[in-house]
Amino acid sequence: MPIKTLPGSPYPQGATWDGTGVNFAIYSENATGVDLCLFDGLDSGEHETIAMQESTSYVWHCFVPGLTIGQLYGYRVHGPYEPKEGLRFNPAKLLIDPYAKAIAGKVNWDYPVFGYRLGDAEEDLSCDSNDDAAGVPKGVVTTSHFDWQNDRSPDTHLHDSIIYELHVKGFTVEHPEVPENLRGTYLGLVSPPILDYFKKLGVTAIELMPTHSFLDDKILLDKGLQNYWGYNTTNFFSPESRYSSSGDRGQQIGEFKTMVRELHRANIEVVLDVVYNHTSEGNQMGPTLSFRGVDNPTYYRLLEDNPRYYMDYTGTGNTLNVRHPQVLKLVMDSLRYWVLEMHVDGFRFDLAAALARELHDVDRLSAFFDVINQDPVISKVKLIAEPWDVGEGGYQVGHFPALWAEWNGKYRDVVRRYWKGDDGQLHELGYRLTGSSDLYKRDGRRPSASINFVTAHDGFTLQDLVTYDQKHNEANGEGNQDGTNANYSWNCGVEGPSDDPRIIELRDRQKRNMLTTLLLSQGVPMILAGDELGRTQRGNNNAYAQDNEISWVNWNPDDRKKALAEFAINLIQLRKNHPNFHRRKFFQDSDISPTAEERHLDGLDVQDVGWYRPDGQRMTEDEWKAGWVRCLGMRLSGRTLDDVDQYGEPIIDDSFLLCLNPHHEHIRFYLPACTGACNWEVLIDTRDPARTERRSIKQGEPYDMIEHSAVLFCETEVKR
Q: What is the secondary structure of 544-600 as a DSSP string?
């Protein structure tokens, strides 16, 4: 007996349960027909088929009474298979609903999941008629009900934020105190030992590497590898089920929500790394899993003169067609879903420049930015761009519009070069230490637009940055040809691990130097998870396929690595205690160079920021531009900052002097004059991180800085 259906509604798209049945709605502009397929089991291809009769503004829809939560479903979409015209409809292929809130199962590559016949001379031009339903994941009908227990976002101001980038599985899978069944899961991230660690470390937000449902590529599985990072999205609404300890029939949603709720209770925000620039279906030779079979020319950017092929600004084979109103709606619906239903606090957009391409060039006034700017939900959360893609003109650091913060790749590069000892870095370093006003001030943004980082998931870890000069990606099975060579690493002249105590100490000091620089710079610091524990990837700077000890955090560090963690904890607390290190506004002088107009305070020429040579004198313009000064001193003037707190009261803080010596020679740094009756007190010296005594030094006296070290001084009043 045919299943009884009602016309239903074209909105909302996806599968929506109302207590009496389920409304199904899917957009396809070029389809000639759409079949809804209802499954009793996951691995069987047997199913009930319902031909959807209603189509409103290209949305196919129906209502099926009596269906309930947990129902498995998919679609078959009819239409012409004409790849040369950009059309790749194939009703033999079961398709995942682009709006599915949960996905059960994984792709089984033993089934004919390709829309074309493998082995034909021009493979993708042929049409494969074999049914693949048993090998394709299914959508799951879900409910939005969840006991949020009065959950509220910490709503930490971005300028007060300290971001911690981590992988859901890799962070907890080897933690001995996390219950074994929770290791590597959403709930593992909120188990007591992990929450305690987050709170002790002092981070305010965790940035989760992709948690949208993603695909394990066949080429990786054939090599015994997996897609570990997850930058290969299959669906933009469903949480990745491999991180769920309780199942994939919708349980992954509740588990994700529990994670967010408990992190919020710990005053920690959740930022998602999202990949809206491409999907896991790849180029014309990829599988037909969802968007390609639903409506290929709607969802993907195709070559205008040859729509058989895809425009590829991402290096993955395709680019999402955000120019199309339906695709823009899909992205915005997804973003709102994650904020309103899943309670996340912001997003980091992978290869965000690809989203801004209207025709070819990156357009900062594109429809994508316009829609986000006016959206009453998304415009209020944290928006972080990876401001580049792999296409021509794709490097757009400093060119994203208001509301957006950016991964500041220029910060990463100059800090690495400076501590490596490269000459000529001072001028750019000055801008990066002070919030990158040259990049962000001109369009009204503030220092918080600069997400500062030295390491991230893509590249060397901090430990490997000071250990290896060359990448060692052999485990990826690509002949060590993958990954970038531009790491600006510094390994003390010894490639690889060493037992030499001097080399070990130099490397430890370089790690402390870069953490000090990162956490005492204006802008928003981002720390790669495990860097503070000396995590190594054995020289692999592209561990995207390494779901193993190469990528996982080792929770059994030796004493030296524990000491590094304590150093990081103290640095983070110092930053949080002193607003001088995370100002809301740029320094009063729009130009940070020594020739900027100076302010007068207590009879001394004191700027908000000042630059000093080791002889205690201000740097000259020629020295600044030449960048040859071996040791740099940056003075942050305190007292009353050019800012007010939430109650309108002036913010008052100490004055600091940060001295950086990246060179291989010991140097004596003569401390400049203080303001009033003050001396300089040493707060941090990276050569001796465990020192606890507070040493006071008079202005004009020298301080011995050893090679490759950083020292932070604070002005303190002289007791009479």
A: TT--STTTSPPS---HHHHHHHHHHHHHHHHHHH-GGGS-SS--SSS--STTSPPPE
